[in-house]
């Protein structure tokens, strides 16, 4: 029997998960591995959120929920977005999705026809190219560069945008930890306007800002009508397994996205949505509590990295990751990560897992207890120093 080209060519290979899968196989075989690979909180969902979820489920909100999302959650998200960005936003601008990944897929389904060119930036979150292929779009990558601080350059975007339909951006950025500054965002907006592109803005790390400011491109002049924003409870509230996210955009686009959800996901469980409402209503104090371990570990990392010269950090302005330049070792990111795993049983992600722009780098997730994190990072730096020497 024949499977569709779309499903069999979805990943284009491993799409960067080889090292992660190797580490997980070692763990399954009983090997103790320190995992600094994926963005999974080491703390779990707050007990108060779980209590709200339990109360809702036991109260009977376990049947089919409204496909666009419950009215109260859509209003709560709209109020949060308007307060944070200043852009007028109502529930008609919001659809609730089963996590940010489903929102990315739906957003591209909304704006890309079969064969349309969809732009994305390198380095990128590992699922981006497959998401674009999955909706039938043709992925076209635009490289950013370490020497530019991984800030996308308007000239590069302008060259790539000819004949394209959409552009996907992510700030605060996974994997680099970079936050796009106002000049960068202005260049992105100019290119989108000049080439009549839809902008899809992945903002799931918007509560993890360590330096500077996060500006949603939807708030820039003329961008609200051409921007779809992806948000999620996963990173901001440590609700990764609950799968609750959203798309914010023009009301007409949202109405058609609701039709798509009716034929695909059919909504998000009501008790999870009620828990999300409770969590969002706790406001900034709970978001800061969830973000604090990463802020603290970033400070630990800065101290450790300042005491050596074999590893050069990309300035981490946001998100739960460090991107480390290990080119002084003469190794690729893949070679370094594999050797580190074999030698010290520490798993990090090769920069090449996220494209070619971060070749010679590794990404470290700040997702284990402080002491163990400091020990692992110190070991990584010592390993790099030995290879550089």
From TrEMBL:
Catalysed reaction(s) here are:
L-aspartate + 2-oxoglutarate = oxaloacetate + L-glutamate
A single MF term (Gene Ontology): transaminase activity
| Keyword Hydrolase listed | no
Q: Which UniProt keywords apply?
A: Aminotransferase, Pyridoxal phosphate, Transferase
Its Enzyme Commission number?
A: 2.6.1.1
Against InterPro entries, the record matches this protein to: Aminotransferase_I/II_large, AspAT/PAT-like, PyrdxlP-dep_Trfase, PyrdxlP-dep_Trfase_major
What is the species listed in this Swiss-Prot or TrEMBL entry?
Answer: Sedimentitalea xiamensis
Which family is it part of?
A: Belongs to the class-I pyridoxal-phosphate-dependent aminotransferase family.
Tell me where in this chain the Aminotransferase class I/classII large domain is found.
Answer: 33-370
Name of this protein: aspartate transaminase
What PANTHER family would the database entry show? ASPARTATE AMINOTRANSFERASE
Entry's Pfam families?
Aminotran_1_2 (PF00155)
